[in-house]
């Protein structure tokens, strides 16, 4: 007997698969296509996280099953490599971010290859490669051309620690998402992308895609569509505009209004005065504060004059920046009214609005702040000319490459380090050839990930970001119901990456360069892997698990099985090194079964049919943990036998192969096959074999065996009892007696107590 040696087996088959290129996707094929996608990793200096293994294995299992089902499968991988950690590392060490990225991606690639994922490595992309970001810049120019990219002086969220402008999506509870520092407001000229022009479609088209409901809900909440009414409240006195426009989703409550509340910016616009109120909209449960402006506004419904307050809980960015306070119907308004002793009118009459305002639809979604004052990002391909203003870099001059700099430190004035490279900054205006300067802002790290799944389809194309025919093949022909077939990713990217990439894709659809209006047909998500004890893994806590170690000691197959077995896929679960051994022992048991295989022996087909059915269904529902326990139960069952048939063992290996591809490939060859198990078709189950399976049941009366009956496996308990009692022998023994109780031990016996 040869022992299971994972080190030898895994290296051998990884090499062989790579040499033969068996995971390469074909751009032309008669087979149906399947495009499975995972979020490409940010190659951090910490190396691959065990969480990556979890999500990668899940989609790997699905893709392997699809190949076995006869699909031409695209399962690509690449690097989302622009971003702050690499830049901060460069600031600290002086090593160029490109070098750091190269080193990190080399490590990640090696680690991923050791995991045995069936990626098509020939399609690897890297967002920091000028050949890649050339097209990111090209998309920006197209957006500029269509008026979707514009420069605006706005109040941005500013992180004083990172010295960076943040998008609303990057502010959590008023603090920087990256470092936790309290965010300040700063007025700055920024490039903006008009995602709000797509708000209606981004909301509505969620109806057509197969996303998990919780993902749809998060997107909808973020887009924040609300239908309401804009109502004019006329102001008394002079020296200011004559009316305030109020936005409300509840125009029927107008008779209950007792005050008007304004956002600080709106109050300043109307009165010219600063009331010293700071907006606290990002914070929940913050105390409501306000100042009476002295203005009075006339309620158009009943003519009453209402006091006008400037408050800290109404944002200028939502609706009109002015609301009517209806304390009887709104918790926030009630809290405010009680504090400032404003009237609260209970039981006021409800209006059907008609005469007071006009219907409008509002969105919470804001335009996307697209400028970053940092080095390590895609340069924004714009030139500012003294005469012509903003002029786009001509397409033939793309990519605008990042120049070499000595110092990556952002300046305190908030300008990018690129601003110091005068040789790069000073250029001729493409229009008038006069003196001009390059834009020194770079794009946010969400830019490259907004379209990467398109580049996988045609990664080496020099003429366009991807050939339209190839896009049509991989995304489908139906413009409304296609895209990447299955995209799995983290819940943390639901309001950022997922929304941004849907927006970019819709834009590309509108200009006719992609065939579908939605990028992803199906989106699911995974839970995180936490450290032992349920806390987040972090370098500082020293609780990070290095997958390399686990692979070395137990093998990639064991790690894959363990991470799929660890708990329900959509939930976060704590790592436990002690439990890995269980997964390892399971694989050893499978390995040792080879010595029981006999070619001509028959094993009851019922169990394997059930196993095929359950494992097939569980994979589709991402219930990987129960799929594995089904496989384990099966191994326990056949492990009890003296011999097992080769047929059954091979079917079992096919079911296990997406989970443990190396070992099953090894066993496949040992069983005498020349071809890879990767080319075997997925087992199909025969429903009739499961349904028609008969089970023998012993029938007792008061503990004495009186009969045996045969029942069909799937019938109900009630039906079994009925059949037992109506059996000829049993009914003879029961005649004249009163049945007190019927006890059923499933699939084994029935005891009738008389
Ligand atoms: Zn920060
Ligand atoms: Zn010019």
Automatic annotation (TrEMBL):
Annotated localization: Cytoplasm
Record domain Leucyl-tRNA synthetase editing: where: 220-346
Cellular compartments per GO CC: cytosol
Motif range ('KMSKS' region): 536-540
InterPro entries documented for this protein: aa-tRNA-synth_I_CS, aa-tRNA-synth_Ia, Leu-tRNA-ligase, Leu_tRNA-synth_edit, M/V/L/I-tRNA-synth_anticd-bd, Rossmann-like_a/b/a_fold, tRNAsynth_Ia_anticodon-bd, Val/Leu/Ile-tRNA-synth_edit
Domain (Aminoacyl-tRNA synthetase class Ia) ranges: 12-217, 365-562
EC number: 6.1.1.4
Keywords from the named record: Aminoacyl-tRNA synthetase, ATP-binding, Cytoplasm, Ligase, Nucleotide-binding, Protein biosynthesis
Catalytic activity: tRNA(Leu) + L-leucine + ATP = L-leucyl-tRNA(Leu) + AMP + diphosphate
Main location per the UniProt record: cytoplasm
Binding site for ATP: 539
Family, as annotated: Belongs to the class-I aminoacyl-tRNA synthetase family.
PANTHER family found in the cross-reference section: LEUCINE--TRNA LIGASE, MITOCHONDRIAL, LEUCYL-TRNA SYNTHETASE
Name of the molecule in the record: Leucine--tRNA ligase
Gene source species: Candidatus Nomurabacteria bacterium GW2011_GWC2_35_8
Gene from which this protein is expressed: leuS
